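Summary of Year 1 activities. Much of the first year was spent building the evaluation harness for sequence design. The harness presents a backbone, in tokenized form, and records the residue chosen at every position. We chose the following record to illustrate the format because it has been used consistently in internal testing since the harness was completed.
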């Protein structure tokens, strides 16, 4: 376990915000984690950080930041249909996806190139291109922050929803996810229903795609739309795709026939947040050292030297304009600290 005082968090958040932590602690095992939690105690403010890809620091952090670097990937069980893959919470998500793709274990390929670490995936119920983590989730082991005890959570225990889980609500700030087990398919059936995937496969002349083909296409699509975080600071999608009642969607379509949506929960329709932002004139617009990316309005970027508060202010202006033009409330996907 490595501990540093007054540490810069700039290398540990993909927005590249130069905030500082009173104490930075790097853990590589459950034993390290328990030691760090004991060191923090009940009186020290504490937070867990994985890949730092879904977080915006709006100020320095007056407490302990624990970097989850618990690694390892292995097959722990299998049957005729499924293989069960267990990964450490500190493993990079995309590395795990490609590890599984290389072995023809199906289910993760549509979520290729999502930034961040495995441990953050269940908290957010990450997803992309028609798939979500809950579709392949089996169980996870989490360490209780106060007691240090390990608890195993099943799929039903996690209460997954759209970018939601029990760890964002009932058990917020109570557990650290140490290990996650996924149930993957030995005989994969690819999912190409998401329009841009099928379009790109057609362009490549691929009629019978493998999971590797799907993964490669998703990577290409994401790279064409999203800036690399080491070149331009960002956290991927800043807002969730908003869900609205079907009648409200139809009202928007009467005014904007090109508006598109897809089925949400409870009969609601999900709108494409990027399209809403673009219609309000934000795509490619720069405000000081911040802005909405030129290729994907849903991605807010740090052109260099921006503070977290400046990015948050930009997000507020975008939300106000979408509300004014469409009557739609935008909810942030990024976590604020």
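For this record, the design step produced the sequence shown next.
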């Amino acid at each position: 376990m490595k501990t540093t005082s007054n540490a810069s968090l700039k290398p540990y958040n993909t927005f590249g915000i130069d905030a500082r932590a009173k104490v930075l602690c790097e853990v590589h095992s459950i034993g390290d984690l328990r030691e760090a939690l004991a060191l923090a105690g009940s009186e020290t403010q504490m937070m867990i950080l994985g890949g730092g890809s879904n977080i915006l620091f709006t100020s320095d952090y007056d407490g302990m930041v624990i970097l989850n670097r618990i690694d390892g990937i292995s097959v722990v069980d299998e049957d005729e249909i499924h293989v069960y893959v267990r990964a450490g919470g500190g493993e990079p998500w995309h590395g795990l996806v490609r590890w599984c793709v290389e072995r023809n274990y199906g289910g993760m390929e549509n979520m290729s190139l999502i930034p961040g670490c495995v441990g953050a995936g269940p908290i957010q119920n990450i997803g992309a291109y028609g798939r979500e983590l809950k579709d392949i989730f089996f169980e996870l082991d989490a360490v209780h922050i106060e007691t240090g005890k390990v608890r195993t959570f099943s799929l039903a225990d996690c209460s997954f929803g759209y970018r939601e889980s029990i760890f964002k609500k009932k058990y917020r700030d109570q557990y650290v996810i140490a290990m996650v087990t996924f149930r993957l398919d030995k005989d994969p059936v690819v999912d190409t229903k998401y329009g841009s995937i099928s379009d790109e496969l057609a362009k490549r002349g691929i009629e019978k795609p493998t999971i590797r083909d799907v993964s490669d296409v998703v990577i290409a699509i994401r790279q064409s739309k999203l800036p690399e975080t080491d070149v331009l600071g960002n956290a991927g999608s800043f807002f969730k795709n908003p869900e609205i009642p079907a009648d409200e969607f139809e009202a928007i379509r009467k005014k904007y026939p090109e508006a598109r949506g897809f089925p949400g929960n409870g009969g609601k329709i999900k709108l494409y947040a990027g399209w809403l932002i673009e219609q309000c004139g934000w795509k490619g617009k720069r405000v000081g050292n911040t802005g909405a990316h030129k290729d994907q309005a849903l991605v807010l970027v740090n052109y260099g030297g921006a503070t977290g508060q400046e990015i948050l202010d930009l997000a507020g202006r975008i939300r106000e304009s979408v509300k004014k033009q469409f009557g739609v409330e935008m909810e942030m996907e990024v976590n604020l600290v």
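The longest helix spans residues 308-326. Quantitative recovery figures across the full test set are reported in Table 2.
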